[in-house]
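Morning F.,

Quick status update on the modeling queue. The single chain you submitted on Monday has been processed. Sequence for confirmation:
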Amino acid sequence: MAVHGRDSWGKELHYFDREVEQLRLIDYETLVADKSCSAMDVHGEITPNYAGLPDKVVERITSYLGPRARVVLVLRDPAERVLSHYLKNRRAGIGQEVRLRQIVRYCQKARTLAYTRYNDIIDRWKRSLPADGLLVLTYDEITYDTIGALGRILDFLGVDSTPTLPVASSSDRINSSASRGYCSNALVRRYLHWKFESERSTTRVWAGKNWTGSESLQSPWIERLFFRILEFIYLPMKFASCYRFWMRGRRLARALDLRIIEHRK
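Structure tokens below.
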């Protein structure tokens, strides 16, 4: 198996979530293929942003790739994912204080919600892919059972998993900010657990186990009321963010339509 596109474009290719037309004339297979691999090898890339793309964009991606496309989706505890992504965007390190007001604002953004509503993400890709086209794993499986997770991925891709393959240690992080999910502010953590309790519960049921090291944090009713009031204050910002996210989805869909037309010529 080969995962390519990193040398020229970085770890994440972002071929299907670019609004500009700079990649329209570059064939996707050309970008991800490796000349040293045979035609029978599996090629791919890593772009987490694809998970939260709108329905119309996902439909166009699967139309472009065809029925042989396979997608591996790795889910992390939603509360931890949001916090880690916030700290990454803020370029904050461990130990820096995170204020509740900042996190509440961040959680009103349509982009934040789109990448954390796991049930919607799974349903969206399942609808567009063949019945055997989606494999869902948890971040815990990748971290604590790397060999086992790799074996499941190779089986899913139809790749012989018998040979010994080089496996990077879970401590050898490509994205060093992934370890920044720690936050000492207990109120922030209780808010995130309250905000994404539905996603945490339903995904926990699907996974068949609790999120490792992430027990559910309960908030008293007065605290939950306080959270709701804070979210109400930022409601106008949420509506504006949803509109911008919707418009971006339309632009992405138009850009992909042009790539599909070019691809089929």
